[in-house]
């Protein structure tokens, strides 16, 4: 989950979502989350199955946002849950062993509660304010990220307002990866954008 693409069709500037995802993967994306907030269940499952087939040859895991049923139906590699979604214990009981479970943390309490849980990653949500999610919580900022790094045993992903200019500092301050919507989906070239972000992550990693 070094470079984690979260999909949003409306951010893709009218371009085909599957084209955007494949370009991004060719540029260096290491994990993809299918995030559909309005799609009906059948269309969501169809899209997940198609995306899984696209990603498989690249060995890039597919994560489903919010919906354990869709993750199971599409044999996705995992599920991402937030603080208003299905509770962790229920998800853990439903999802087969070996699947990825990622969780959003919006507060210090969420971070501490997650210490007992078997998570593949914890996402600091959001690191910075972003127009891509209108109902987001108070941003963590770099000081918040440093606190989480010191108090969490989980791999950390940061999401919200990440771009090529602020990625290195997030990595240097303890993030193990970044998750983005607009920096890739809305880029003129999703492939080049992913390539540049990946290069920046790797530079940041060398400095810590
Ligand atoms: C990687 C990642 N981090 C955070 C979120 C946000 O999850 P959530 O708070 O449940 O909000 P929605 O995305 O469901 O609107 C995420 N999806 N992915
Ligand atoms: C899904 C989500 N969760 C927290 S912020 C966010 C949106 C991130 O989008 P962007 O990378 O365009 O800021
Ligand atoms: Mg959610």
TrEMBL record:
Belongs to the thiamine-phosphate synthase family. It comes from the Bacteria. Keywords: Magnesium, Metal-binding, Thiamine biosynthesis, Transferase. Pathway: Cofactor biosynthesis; thiamine diphosphate biosynthesis; thiamine phosphate from 4-amino-2-methyl-5-diphosphomethylpyrimidine and 4-methyl-5-(2-phosphoethyl)-thiazole: step 1/1. Mg(2+) binds at residues 66, 85. 2-[(2R,5Z)-2-carboxy-4-methylthiazol-5(2H)-ylidene]ethyl phosphate binds at residues 130-132, 161, 181-182. Binds 1 Mg(2+) ion per subunit. GO terms for cellular component: cytoplasm. Signal peptide: none annotated. PANTHER family: THIAMINE BIOSYNTHETIC BIFUNCTIONAL ENZYME, THIAMINE-PHOSPHATE PYROPHOSPHORYLASE. This is Thiamine-phosphate synthase. Condenses 4-methyl-5-(beta-hydroxyethyl)thiazole monophosphate (THZ-P) and 2-methyl-4-amino-5-hydroxymethyl pyrimidine pyrophosphate (HMP-PP) to form thiamine monophosphate (TMP). 4-amino-2-methyl-5-(diphosphooxymethyl)pyrimidine binds at residues 33-37, 65, 104, 133. One of its GO terms (biological process) is thiamine diphosphate biosynthetic process. It is an enzyme of class 2 (transferase). Its EC number is 2.5.1.3. SUPFAM superfamilies: Thiamin phosphate synthase. It catalyses: 2-(2-carboxy-4-methylthiazol-5-yl)ethyl phosphate + 4-amino-2-methyl-5-(diphosphooxymethyl)pyrimidine + 2 H(+) = thiamine phosphate + CO2 + diphosphate; 4-methyl-5-(2-phosphooxyethyl)-thiazole + 4-amino-2-methyl-5-(diphosphooxymethyl)pyrimidine + H(+) = thiamine phosphate + diphosphate; 2-[(2R,5Z)-2-carboxy-4-methylthiazol-5(2H)-ylidene]ethyl phosphate + 4-amino-2-methyl-5-(diphosphooxymethyl)pyrimidine + 2 H(+) = thiamine phosphate + CO2 + diphosphate. It comes from Larkinella punicea. Its cofactor is Mg(2+). Residues 3-184 form the Thiamine phosphate synthase/TenI domain. GO terms for molecular function: magnesium ion binding; thiamine-phosphate diphosphorylase activity. InterPro entries: Aldolase_TIM, ThiamineP_synth_sf, ThiamineP_synth_TenI, TMP_synthase. The gene is thiE.
